Structure formats: C-alpha cells, structure tokens
Amino acid sequence: MRAVVLVVLLVLAGCSTPPGRAGLGPAQAGERPPLSSVSPVADPRSVQGPTTALVAHNDIVPVGSPTPQLPVTVTDNQGTRVTVTDVSRILALDVSGTLAATVFGLGLGNRVVGRDISTGFPAARQLPLVTVNGHQLNAEAILRLRPTVVLTDTTLGPWDVVLQLRDAGVPVVIIDSTRGLATNGPIVRAVAAALGVITAGEQLANRLETDIADTVAQISRLAPAEQDRKPRVVFLYMRGQAGVYYLFGKGSGADSLIQALGAVDVATEAGLDGMRPINPEALAKAKPDVILMMTDGLASVGGVDGALKVPGVAQTPAGQHRRFVDMADSVVLGFGPQTAAVLDGLARALYAP
Fold first, then answer.
1. pTM of the entire structure?
2. Sign of CA pseudo-dihedral 132, 136, 140, 145
3. Nearest CA-CA partner of 140 in 131, 149, 148
C-alpha cells in the first residue's frame, strides 16, 4: 500500500528529475575529507540556514563483469513464475531508480537499453527514456527498445503496460517495491537471481552491507550520544505545482535514513505510518529541528521562503531557523548501491554544514 500511495503522489505531482539534476555531477564528485575526519558542530540542533546535501561518488562501481548463467526461472514478488532466457537487453524501472542502479552495480550496466526518469547517474544518463509524464510507463517506447527482460515493481504504472509486455512475450519480473536499509540485500539478490548472476548478487549485497555499516559507524562519531541533543528530523514531500504536501513516516524509507543518521525521526516518534498529508498542528507539535526534502520538491514551492508558507512549517524550530536539508530527488530515497554515499552526504549536512 505504501508503494501505491507513493506512485500516486509522484504521478499526480508530475515529479521528474531532469538528467542535469541527478545529484551526481562533477561538482559533487570532487575530493573531500573522509567522514571520519570531519569535525562536528557543537550542537546540530542550533544550526541555522539551509544546506544542500551532496552525493560524493560520481557513478556506481560494479562488483565485476559476471557472465549470466541462463536460463533461470524465478518466482517474483507477486508469486508469478518467470523464465528468463536472455539478458542482453535489460530494462530496470521503478520510481526511485533503485533497480537500474542495482543492475549497474552487478556489472550488467552495458546491457541496459533504457531508463526511467529517476535513473540519472552518469553511466545511464544518456539512455533513452521509457517513462512519460514523470513516472508513467510508455509501452511503445519500451517495446521499441526490444527488451529481452524487464525488471520493475508496483511503483510505476499503468499496470496494463506490464500486461501488454507479457502478452508481447517479454519476461517481466516484479521486484519488491519497499525501500529502506533492510530491503537492500533482498532486492539485490532478487535482481541478481532474475538475471542469472547470483554470485555477483552476493558480492554486491555484502559490499553494500559493509559500506553502510562503515558509514553508520562514522556517523555515530558525529551524532550526539545524548537523546536530548540529537537533531529532530522530519521528511516532507512537496510538489507546489500540484498542491501536494505530505509527511513521510514509519515504513516510508525516510525513517530508516533518519535513524541511520543518529537523528530522531519525529514522524515515527509520533506514531505516523507511511505517507500522510501534512497536518499543521501535528507538524508544529512534533518540533523538528531539521526539515529534510527532495531538491526539486523544495524548488517547486519557491525554496525556503515558499516552504515556510506551507501551514505548520513556520511554527517549527526548523522553520524558525530556516533549517532545511535537501538532496537530489533521484538519490535521497533510492537506497541500493548509493545508500552509503547518501548517508555520507546527509551526515555532512546535518553535523558539519
């Protein structure tokens, strides 16, 4: 249900991330000191002013160049048995760009023939788009690319396109749509199994686990140990042009990011599940010190000044201090191979702005 709500929000809002806003450009890939050497601010709850969190890594590093062992038959996330005999022309499509990033991480990026609007890292940026109006699948554009296998989930629609692809003889494997730190490994392994590269899947899943654990350990050095000194954070999803204003709570993916950052997720603290329209009174009562947003979402409401006009925002400590942290739409909730880099960038914005 969470995934359905999210894709409805994105489609209604016409959310799109143009290639130039992928969050992985050269300016962001420059050398910077390791997180372990960063000096934290004395009190992250008292920092004022907005910060854009940057992702350090310029592209996704594959685990190798595996040779797929085919054919394979898998049972996908909907219980459908799918046989894959050819992975020479892959499409991996979802609302967060996770699946394509995973395919590239597995070392099969040279077989990917198209992309969704959320896939914007440099190696994939020039691939033809197969989504329209933000996050809607275009059957004609997909079939024109002659895919031999399609990996997707329930965050993109319309579902009739999936049925049309299957009727055309294209194997379509549905992957779990839940995103969070806990789902990284299962998603990597599911994608690897469907593409016949199980060993590479284990390598990538293990590398992700190690990288994330190392990053979280470094973050713990920056984050205050005392509960009353931890920054209180809320993730707000806004699309001003569509009048969409949502708060992301427990199970949305934003909660696992905030918790991994050593911060307090005020939505989870308040018992809010999934995605809900912003309640001005509840938001003010939650007293977030920091408002975390997508970069294009913040821009869509007119930046910080515009966000402060959304009912409830100006009444929070974050609003009073203009304390907004934004990160590129295509990476902040993408998880997968970019998770550690996302956590690194957000930690710098929170603790060493």
1. 0.90
2. positive
3. 131
